[in-house]
Structures are given as C-alpha cells and as structure tokens.
Amino acid sequence: MLRIIQIYGTMMVAAMGQTLLLALLSLFFACLLGLFFGLLSTVRNRACNIIGAVYVDAIRGWPLIVLAYFVYFGIPMLIQGLGFKSFRMDSLQAGVIALSLNCGAYMAEIIRAGIQSVDKGQMEAARSLGLSYGKSMFKVVLPQAIRTMIPSIINQFIITLKDTSILSVIGFPELTNTTKNVSANVGLPMQAWLLCGLMYMVVIIILSKASKNIERRINRGR
C-alpha cells in the first residue's frame, strides 16, 4: 500500500476531491429539486400532490446506474435527433444530472416530512396575521422545518457521496474509477481497493460525526 501512496497518492487525493465536488454539486441541485417537489407534496392541491408523488416514485424506481446511462447516452442522442448535432455532454455534467435527479427524490421526501413535522398552527397563525401562503411557508414554517431536516440532509449527502462510485461506469474520474486504473497499473488490487475504502471511510466518518454533533445541538436547543 505504501508503494501505491508514494506513486499514486496525489492522484487518488485529487480523485477524492472530484468525488466531493460531484457530491456537493449534486446535493445543491437536489436540494432545489427536493424543495420544489417537497412543497408540491404539501400544498392543498390534488394536482400538485400527484406531480410531487409521481416524480418521487418514478425516480426512486430507477436504479442509479440505469439513470446514469440514460442521461449520459440517451439524452445526447435525443437532443442530437432533434437537430442539435453538435450537442455533447461530459461525464461531470451527466453525473451531476443523474445524481441530482436521484438525490432530489429523497430530498423531496425529507423536506415534505420536515414541513409536516411543524405544527399546523404555525401556518394558521401566520395566515391569520395577513401573510400570504408563500410568505408563511418561507418565513415561518421552513425555518422551523430546516432544524429537523439538517441531520437527514447530511445523511443524504453521505449516501450521495457513496453513490458517486456508480458513476465510474460513465468514465467520471472519481475515486472508484481512479482506483480501478491504479489497481490495473500497479498490479496490487487488494492494497489499492483497501486504500480506496479507507479514504471513503475517513470522509464518511467525519461527516457522520458532524451529523450527530449537529443533531445533539438541535436537540439541546429545543
């Protein structure tokens, strides 16, 4: 393993940086998607509820690897078929889209549950003061819901971070894909994959500890 660290250590650290970048970008866009569809699932409108439920159920029904292949190969072919022959999508763009869609479905459920955990009287009180539904949601309900959602969001980030390994199938140079190349070059697969696992473990343990620490602070603040 020491030989791998000496020769490929910098490359693997850079690959972990790419992994974290992919996970962070995906979580950002997933939060936007989750907020939109989570809100659709909580409003008193049957059509909006159906749209939110269809998105969540449809995306969660797709294995991430199938979604990644569809985004990377299928969408460019579809757009090129519409006449945009020069359209291309690199592995980072495809990876962010696939992970964001996948993570967004779970974020929508986290946000829906967070909003529903806030006492209904908070919304009623805000509306009685003359605030619109939107202002009541964003100024009264969501700030309270976020407190309960933060640990779940961090846990979802951990899951998304591990899911980035699936995107090695479309050639994105994240840690798993880089380790596969290092293993083939150095001829020490056991040591290479052990190092890869340890790198994931260190980052995930740090995030898990952060999640538990935040959860304890939230619980003490109640």
What is the compact description of this entry?
84% of the residues lie in helices and 0% in strands. It is an all-alpha fold and 222 residues long. The chain has a single domain, classed as Orthogonal Bundle (MetI-like fold).
CATH architecture: Orthogonal Bundle
What integer is the average pLDDT?
89
Number of domains: 1
- SS-based class: mainly alpha
Tell me the number of strands. Answer: 0
Tell the overall outline: flat
Question: Level of helix content?
Answer: over 70%
Could you list some keywords that capture this structure?
222 residues; mainly alpha; MetI-like fold; 8 helices; 0% strand
Would you mind describing this structure in some detail?
By secondary structure, the chain is mainly alpha-helical. The protein has one domain: Orthogonal Bundle (MetI-like fold), CATH 1.10.3720.10. 84% of the residues lie in helices and 0% in strands. The chain has eight helices and no strands. The termini are far apart.
